[in-house]
Design brief:
Elements: E1 3-8, H1 17-25, E2 29-34, H2 50-59, H3 67-70, E3 77-83, H4 85-92, H5 99-106, E4 111-115, H6 119-122, H7 125-135, E5 140-142, E6 146-149, E7 155-159, H8 163-175, E8 184-189, E9 194-195, E10 201-202, H9 209-218, E11 224-229, E12 242-244, H10 248-259, E13 264-267, E14 274-276, E15 297-299, H11 303-309, E16 315-322, H12 327-336, E17 341-346, E18 354-355, E19 357-361, E20 366-368, E21 372-373, H13 374-388
Helix pairs in contact: 1-8, 4-7, 9-13, 10-11
């Protein structure tokens, strides 16, 4: 049975957490963690809450590796309901002065955040900054609150999800991508560079957001995921599973290290199609090179094509960035590069929070979707891969 840490903070929506606990506990083992302010809004009379255990351990000087920290290693998911302005500010600042914030800091598994607060609080600049930071963390899933009547009587954004909606989200979280759970997945994303000299280069405006949304959704959903990323507009930590490569050649070299051991390979990086023929060794000085009026280009190495040449049993997914949804062009690319699936997206979605795609499979099935947030598009792509593998 999956184990959920239900973290309840001190907002008015905490009054609904009893109902949420009842719903979740019918399917999952649920640990209840409450902040001190949460007790003002809700009571759990028939169960022990872990904040009580934390206080007991702390005051009895038994704070070493005990029950309060064990749940961080014996659980599968954190659900913060509601996530208040104060809690969001605390965890985004790295503060962990109670069990609710400590679990956020120490847990490596995913955390579902359900913010709820007054509209003015939700739309102020500090909250926007904290939201952006937390949303970029690979193990955090931020669920926008609803628009509706608030506790103040006003109408606006900030209303909590209903408990039944949270249950549906949690159920979907655990059911998603069942066919991927034993798979090793390799993905590239971001933009690459073509150097002109030691300091100047040609690149593009890809933000890397689409690929990173896919990466975020795959954490804890597959056997292993390796990402090779180029330049991007995100704050991504480099480690053994997240590898930086800023040119096509470097990206191919890094992907080759993991290609043979990968079951699924997703190539959504915005690579340079052309590169400078002769890179100037040093910095081109403006005063010394007054006749420097042109750059000679050649085709860059095609990472996806090179990977297709040595394809064995990998499920290979490519992306096609185009001015319009040219299905014939996408079919040719799919055949030429031995793809199992290709995702067509449009130039005008670059550096956007949204994307509109069509998916074409090697069996010539075409799937079209409306314009959605990139996090939702990532889910669609992975659901389709999950079906096809």
């Amino acid at each position: 049975m999956k184990v959920i840490n239900l973290i309840i903070t001190g907002g008015i929506a905490a009054s609904k957490s009893n109902h949420l606990y009842d719903l979740l506990s019918k399917k999952y083992k649920v640990n209840v963690i409450m902040t001190k302010n949460a007790h003002k809004f809700v009571k759990f009379n028939n169960i022990n809450t872990y904040d009580d255990i934390f206080d007991k351990e702390f005051y009895e000087d038994n704070h070493h590796y005990a029950d309060h920290i064990k749940i961080a290693f014996n659980s599968d998911l954190n659900v913060v309901y509601p996530a208040t302005y104060n809690y969001i500010g605390k965890v985004s600042s790295g503060i962990s002065d109670d069990l609710a914030s400590l679990l956020f800091a120490v847990c490596k598994f995913d955390c579902l955040l359900f913010p709820s607060m007054n509209t003015n609080m939700y739309t102020n600049k500090t909250l926007e900054k904290n939201k952006k930071y937390l949303s970029n963390l690979s193990n955090v899933f931020w669920y926008e609150p609803k628009y509706g009547r608030l506790a103040s009587g006003d109408y606006g954004i900030g209303r909590a999800h209903e408990p039944i909606e949270v249950l549906e989200i949690v159920d979907k979280y655990f059911k998603d991508y069942n066919n991927l759970k034993n798979k090793n997945i390799l993905i590239n994303f971001g933009r690459t560079r073509s150097y002109i000299d030691k300091v100047r280069y040609i690149t593009n405006s890809s933000s890397g957001k689409m690929g990173y949304e896919i990466v975020k959704k795959l954490y804890n959903k597959c056997n292993n995921i390796i990402s090779v990323f180029g330049d991007n507009d995100l704050n991504i930590t480099q480690n053994e599973n997240n590898i930086y490569a800023n040119t096509n050649v470097e990206m191919l070299e890094q992907m080759m290290k993991y290609y043979n051991s990968s079951d699924i390979v997703i190539c959504c990086a915005a690579l340079t199609d052309y590169e400078v023929c002769e890179v100037y060794q040093g910095k081109i000085e403006k005063r010394d090179n007054k006749n420097f009026d042109k750059i000679s280009l050649k085709e860059s190495i095609d990472v996806l094509k090179e990977l297709s040449k040595i394809k064995q049993n990998q499920f290979l997914v490519g992306f096609s960035l185009a001015n319009d949804f040219d299905i014939d062009k996408a079919k040719n690319k799919l055949i030429e590069k031995k793809l199992d699936m290709i995702v067509i997206n449009l130039v005008d979605t670059l550096d956007s929070e949204y994307n509109k795609i069509k998916i074409l499979t090697k069996s010539n099935d075409i799937y079209e979707f409306e314009k959605l947030k990139k996090s939702e598009v990532a889910d669609i792509i992975l659901q389709k891969i999950n079906q096809l593998v």
